[in-house]
Amino acid sequence: MRRGFLLMMILAACNPEPSRFGFGRAATVREIDSLNISITPDGKGLPVGSGNAALGQVLYTSKCAACHGATGTEVSNNRLVAVFGDTVKAKTIGNYWPYATTVFDYIRRAMPYNSPGSLTNEEVYSLTAFLLWRNGIIDSTKEINAHNLAAVVMPAKTLYINDDRRGGDEIR
């Protein structure tokens, strides 16, 4: 048995690596474009659409509460809500995130956990509005869209220093 295993390992090591493994297929241009999204802190790249906290609350209950809790405060590792200055150690939207556009971008790319990228732009805007409202950042009646989301001032923005160095390797 040992000799057979040893022989198998030697033969495997002697065989050249195949040029192709034959897994999957090449992605289409449409598939690549659907994932090739970049939203900057100043709002460049935000898609057309709008949403508000009322619609976001309905969506949150059906698509987010299972992982984040009914109000966004119940699950310590997935906590979303804490106002700036709260003594909670969790890094939430209200006390850690520097840009509102980042909230939108993250939800759009990664949520819901079991089906990332499945939300429409309107759903993402609504969830973003709901979470910003729950964190005390915007009024519950404010409608957010591509034109005004970047103007939302996040409380934790002052905790960050803009990296404006030039002359070396720049990754932007």
Structural commentary:
The protein has helices at 2-14, 29-35, 53-63, 65-68, 100-110, 121-134; strands at 50-52, 143-145. The termini are far apart. The longest helix has 14 residues, at 121-134. The protein has 172 residues and is mainly alpha-helical. Helix content is 35%, strand content 3%. It has a domain at 47-159: Cytochrome Bc1 Complex, Chain D, domain 2. Helix 3 (53-63) packs across helix 6 and helix 5 (100-110) packs across helix 6 (121-134). The protein has a two-stranded antiparallel ribbon with strand order 1-2.
What tags apply to this protein structure?
mainly alpha, Cytochrome Bc1 Complex, Chain D, domain 2, two-stranded antiparallel ribbon, 6 helices, 2 strands
Query: From the structure provided, what is the oligomeric state, counting identical versus distinct chains?
Result: single chain
CATH topology of the domain at 47-159: Cytochrome Bc1 Complex, Chain D, domain 2
Distance between the termini: 55 Å
Q: What structural class do the secondary elements suggest? A: mainly alpha
Question: If helices are DSSP runs of H or I spanning 4 or more residues, what is the number of helices?
Answer: 6
Stretches where pLDDT falls below 50 for ≥5 residues? Answer: none
Overall strand count: 2
The CATH architecture assignment of the domain at 47-159 turns out to be Orthogonal Bundle
- Write out the CATH superfamily name of the domain at 47-159: Cytochrome c-like domain
The CATH class designation of the domain at 47-159 is Mainly Alpha
